Amino acid sequence: MDLNLSDEQRLLRESAERFVAESYDADHRRKMANDPLGFSPAVWKQFAELGWLALPIPEDFGGLGGGAVEIGILMEAFGRGLVSEPYVATVVLGAALIDRCGSAEQKQVSLPKIADGSLKLAFAHSERAARFDLAKVATVANKTAQGWRLAGSKIAVLDGHAADEIIVSAHIHDHQGPSGRIGLFLAPATAPGLVLSDYPRLGGGRACNIELSDVHLAEDALLGGGKDALPAIEWAVDRAMAALGAEAVGIMQTLLETTLEYTKIRKQFGRPLSANQVIRHRLADMAMQVDEARSMALRAALKADSPPVERARAASGAKAKIGKCARFIGEQSIQLHGGMGVTEELEVGAYFKRLVAFDTLFGGSAHHYSRHAELGRNAVPA
């Protein structure tokens, strides 16, 4: 397998890294952290102009037809700058689910708007009692004469406060009662009965909890023909974990470079910290963990369109391993910066917080080690 980047992929990486280096400095990040929106609409517009919002969208709907590897290249650059724009919520999750589940008409309505930056989405699926089990959905969608009536609650909806429309998962109850199928419903963020409670996420960006109380939606709010959407949800979340893994790699690479530079200029007893052999060993361990995490993120991206079990094992393996590497890199960076590492004067703490947040999104390392092992047992014939 040739793992070298193509010319187009190299250009994407170079342009993304250059944009992030020029646009995301410490002042910009502090400003966004104190902004109620949590990101810059002007920067979002630039994302659209650069073609990044159209990257994974099929060419038939105004996109560029890119894949998970291209998303990973972009997300690694975003990690270097702690980008807080709702890219994962809108493009990696939202656009993917509409493309996977929507009818031709629904795709034609939504996907070009996502590509040009005029439509932002969020995916409301996680529930408090689910414990990262994607199949466990208590929210209910009852069929009515006019369309659908939704009731339930969702938690940890990434960038839901900024979304124009929210994709809500719910168990379909038709005229015969519970159908046993999960459906995806496209609800306007301003729909009566839909109440959002947003909060800042650790390390930047925002999320929200959503209460759905007798939310009435039209017949065509259901994506596709109403077949069970669970396989599509698992597929989209696995792709999102691959993308977030690439973002974590970008964060870790930045922490490694920052820490290496700091140990060269910080002196103790008249010598740089990096002259100490123990410090060098710790830096070498950090570099090795970054490389291991990068390999796992790339593997998850390469397997994103593989058969379900193979794809899921790659995604869970990456999430578990990268989560473990992320915590090690973050802790070492803080320790090697000494007391300065936990102050706002340096940005090491902000990067570490984002890594901690990564480990909790869509399940922590322990959950995904268990999922990886369970999938492996199921894949081996008795």
Describe the structure.
The chain is of the alpha+beta class. 51% of the residues lie in helices and 17% in strands. The chain has helices at 7-23, 26-33, 41-50, 68-81, 87-101, 104-115, 230-265, 277-302, 308-336, 348-360, 365-379; strands at 121-124, 140-143, 147-158, 165-174, 177-188, 194-200, 206-218, 267-268, 271-272. The model has no long low-confidence stretch (mean pLDDT 92).
Write a compact overview of the structure shown.
This protein has 382 residues and is an alpha+beta fold. It has 11 helices and 9 strands. A hairpin with a 2-residue loop joins strand 8 and strand 9 (271-272).
SSE map:
Blueprint: H1 7-23, H2 26-33, H3 41-50, H4 68-81, H5 87-101, H6 104-115, E1 121-124, E2 140-143, E3 147-158, E4 165-174, E5 177-188, E6 194-200, E7 206-218, H7 230-265, E8 267-268, E9 271-272, H8 277-302, H9 308-336, H10 348-360, H11 365-379
